[in-house]
Write a structure and sequence with these properties.
alpha/beta, Rossmann fold, Arc Repressor Mutant, subunit A, 2 domains, 4-stranded mixed sheet, two-stranded parallel sheet, about 45% helix, HTH_AraC, Homeodomain-like_sf, DJ-1/PfpI
């Protein structure tokens, strides 16, 4: 984690609490994440709140370690613009990013990544107030103003402050699986649905919000059988409710309409299949309820800003073969 004077303390400790909290839900063994806080000098670094964080290593010391870095995280805060003029910080981030498996920015940390060119030609997000600044200063960055977090290849960016915790939860899910991420979310009381950027949320996390047994049953059925005909009529009948009552109670419980949630669950199921199997696009579309590759392509564009075939090319695991079938033009 890279920090600097006048960083936002939550940009640092929020994501790290989520990441390190995974240890409580994993079998006994090594810590899931070993954290090092890096700054211009080892020792205290004052944040905007007045609280001081203690950096473990200086940029010079950290750069001298030429070993690999799993995840490089750059925080944000009111000191971001001054940080973009700190040659030592920029040199360290540039070199560390080249050695990292993935690079992450929290809030206005995206400005630092943009300053050294890491976001050129990529989709990214940052704090809503800073989006126009990011667009104006770095026109080669494709800024997504409504996103809570964005993943483009190995680079992840998040919106303001607490959205860094949402991004960290996504990292936990990518590293340790859905169930561990769900446990971490529940432990940190992160199950509430944000009013915007809902395409970024896991359908499993949405399902944790429902307290109404009828709606909870519908959510679990959707997750377990995304390929079925999941119309409001069918779901309401399964729940023993009228269509109108079911739709109203569903929206009250989840913040989403049944149709939006069903599509979110189907996109999630398709993502897993694309990442972990070599099944064709058409087959996956049919199995996950989209019925056609074109409908699945449009859903991926709405939720993720990328086609299903391009998603597979970027995110498939090493065990999945390269499929021959694409899902149509973008």
């Amino acid at each position: 984690m890279v920090t600097y004077p006048d960083a936002h303390v939550l940009d640092v400790v929020g994501p790290l609490e989520v990441l390190t909290g995974a240890k409580y839900f994993l079998p006994d063994g090594p810590e899931p994440y070993a954290v090092t806080l890096v700054a211009a000098e080892a020792g205290p670094v004052r944040t905007t709140s007045g609280l001081c964080l203690t950096a473990d290593r200086s940029f010079v010391e950290a750069a001298a370690d030429t070993g690999g870095i799993d995840t490089l995280i750059v925080c944000g805060g009111h000191g971001t613009m001054a940080a973009t003029e700190d040659a030592g910080l920029l040199d360290y981030v540039r070199g560390a990013a080249a050695r990292a498996r993935r690079v992450v920015s929290i809030c206005t940390g995206a400005v630092i990544l943009a300053e050294i060119g890491l976001l050129n030609g990529r989709r990214a997000c940052t704090h809503w107030w800073w989006c126009p600044i990011l667009e104006r200063r770095y026109p080669q960055v494709m800024v997504e103003r409504d996103a809570i977090y964005v993943r483009d290849g190995h680079i992840w960016t998040s919106a303001g402050v607490t959205s860094g915790m949402d991004l960290a939860l996504a990292l936990v899910e990518a590293d340790w699986g859905h169930e561990v991420a769900l446990q971490v979310a529940r432990y940190n009381v992160m199950y509430m649905i944000r009013p915007g950027g809902q395409s970024q949320f896991s359908a499993h996390l949405v399902a944790q919000k429902a307290e109404d047994p009828a709606i909870d049953g519908a959510l679990q059925h959707i997750l377990s059988a995304p390929g079925e005909a999941l119309t409001v009529t069918a779901l309401a009948a399964r729940a023993g409710l009228s269509e109108r009552t079911f739709a109203r109670r569903f929206k009250d419980e989840t913040g989403l309409t049944p149709a939006v949630y069903v599509e979110t669950a189907r996109v999630q199921a398709a993502r897993v299949a694309l990442e972990t199997t070599a099944r064709g696009i058409e087959q996956i579309a049919f199995e996950t309820g989209f019925q056609s590759a074109e409908r699945m392509r449009r859903a991926f564009q709405r939720h993720l800003g990328i086609s299903a075939s391009d998603y597979r090319e970027r995110f498939r695991g090493p065990g999945a073969e390269t499929p021959a079938i694409r899902d149509g033009p973008d």
